[in-house]
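Tutorial sheet, problem 5. The two components below are modelled jointly, 608 residues in total.
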Amino acid sequence: MGRNILNIYCLAVYAFLLAPIFVVVGASFNAGEFLTFPPQGLSLRWYFTFFENEVFLRAIGTSLWIAAVATVFSVVIGTMAAIYYVNFAGRYKEAVRVAALSPLLLPEILTAIALLFFLYDIGIGTKTMFGLLVGHVLMTLPFVFMNVSASLESYDTDWSMAARSLGARPWTRFRRIMLPLIKPGMIGGALFSFVISFDIFTISLLLKSIGTATLPIQLFDYLKTNYTPEAAAVSTLSIVATITVVVIVEKVIGLKMHKF
Amino acid sequence: MTEVRLNRLTKIYAGGKPAVDAISLDIPTGQFVSLLGPSGCGKTTTLKMLAGFEDVTSGDITFDGQDVVRVPAEDRDIGMVFQNYALFPHMTVHQNLAFGLEMRKIARPEIQRRVQATLEMVQLDHLADRYPAQLSGGQQQRVAIGRALTIEPRILLLDEPLANLDAKLREEMRVFIRDLQKRVGITTIYVTHDQAEAMTMSDIVVVMFDGHIAQAGAPRDIYETPKTAKVAGFVGQVNLIEAHVDPDHPGHAATPFGPVPVTAPGVGETVTLALRPEAIDIAPAGAPGTPATIERVQYSGAIVDYTLRFADGTAMEVKTIPRHPFAIGDAVSLSVDLARFRQLEREY
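Model answer (structure tokens):
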């Protein structure tokens, strides 16, 4: 009896979480002119439309490019920050942690406005992709930081000492011992970072240069004037991409963790 | 092989009293030396300074007369075995053993040969491709020792290596480590708080308290001729007897067993004498000796421990093979070879 109620409750929660996805995916196969659910007839026409729509393709290209570059920077900076935080911060440990996580704690719009003012103040502005990239690195940094810190907390400093006694110099100790052992955290952080960057809206809206648009911005723009199932097709492809990344996380990290 | 010498070696952490306070010690080539003491006595700090993991505040460490204080750990050529083994979890046993040789830029075939030799030496050739997590505690321990030895270091340092093993395995590993050390002939420094380990394995036991060396010597000397009550008590059970110098026998202290010769202060002053529990013979009442009463019996098979009390109220521990089935309350007679008494130094 109690178990049945629990089951029903779980089903309800899942339905609440997943229903919008079903609606979007369903609507993307619409044969009609308008974004409706349930779809009026099934067709892939809006996918074809999308693949011929250069604006969307360019937006996806921009999003992928920014996500990739931001992830690289986030992983490098976030890993260095995590190493400092775990091994060297001493009594400033808590302060370092809060600082590194602050982009998560503050409303995104505040970070965006602050960055916008700052970029104009120092004369960089938003003419180039630079500001946008900085914003994305800032927003994805906490995820790398958290993942790598977690890996480092289970890193035994005796491993470094053992390597040292065997003749390994600092860089070799990092490359041969620490790096392989925190790699799962770095990969996890990188995947999070990529997915989060792909999804960032507010920062992108304020910091994008004229004429560039990431996918979320382009979708928003499109929906302001159009209401076709093409938007649903784009969304569906984004969902597929996200799930692919999650599956990779599970395969790569899940297996890695098993070995130790 | 390497002779190790510590000269007034000192370590002071910021704002504290010395963790290691001007200790001096000569370790002859090929000897197995234990640093024995309670936690916080400075034994691990001493080991870390030897390894190069801790800076030296003052004093010298020399290997074969060569000062190594300013040589970084990675160039000091020491083999180190950690309490938790510190095996690299992402490397197989073979890769763990090869690591130190790779750091020395030794050619592949030679690495292969030396790793194989080490695997055979620590009896692990059948597990070369396993990861540390797939090994038992005892096997991990042997990998750790093998890894430290493949580089053919000048000295071998072990930091409480048996602390995480169960009692039976610990005894096996004691024999294993000792045999291996003898075979390789490497100068070895072993940190432990377990007196049985230190006594059974070492050529020299160094007993440390509060950053000082209380006494250094062969296990037998430490046990039979302890300098202070603290040393006597740390390496085994001991009866401490505060005795007055006997007015009737100048140069002797009065004990329940009779006058014991002491290097004596004047009449009326006290000295502290140590007497090991197994030095005392226990016989049924009426036998020659000093009468006493049994207060407590702890029978453990091969040996039995008695707590006894003399008529004057002094308590005494006796350890013996269980010859007589004495029970609590029995009157017995105790005797001792007076030469077994040891006069202790005063501790201030």
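Marking note: DSSP finds eight helices and 20 strands in chain B. Full credit if you identified this.
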